[in-house]
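Entry 12.
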Amino acid sequence: KASVAQRMYRKAKFGFFLGHKGPVLKETPGVKGSQEAAAMAYHAAQLYPENYYFPSYVASRALADAAVASSSTGYSDSLKRAMHFSHLAVSLNPTGEEARMLYVHSLAESGRVDEAIEYWETQVVEREFWNESNHEMLARLYLRSSSPEHLKKAVGEMPFIRDAGLRKELAGIRTILGP
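Predicted 3D structure (tokens):
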């Protein structure tokens, strides 16, 4: 069952699966969007519910669909799909970097920035404080918040930030905020 579910995932993501006997196409057909990928993920989960890669993939596709949605309904539906599947991915693999990133992006895009910050602070940075990319993500989340306190906290993350653009942005905020 697990191998069939894995083949479904590979077919959704790459348009074929390893062991494919047909001709290799220059362009793989793949899945058209997150709605189709979600349907495939649902069927794969019936066979192998422990596969956390498929929900992460669907969440990623759903966020991409939301970014290019031409209507508020399409945007909303895609975000709901991203939230559902990113939450499922984190539930299946709580320490998976991709799942956690997709989850906080889904929260933030849904307007739940404070919840995203709380999750990232307590579930990621407190456990993996040595990882600079976790601090960069936290600073970016702070910058999305409307709280002046979060702006100060974003500036406080500067010693851990290596991204030049983000450091420049934080330095500008530090100048505005003063000592």
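Annotation: The first helix runs from residue 2 to 14. The chain has a mean pLDDT of 84.
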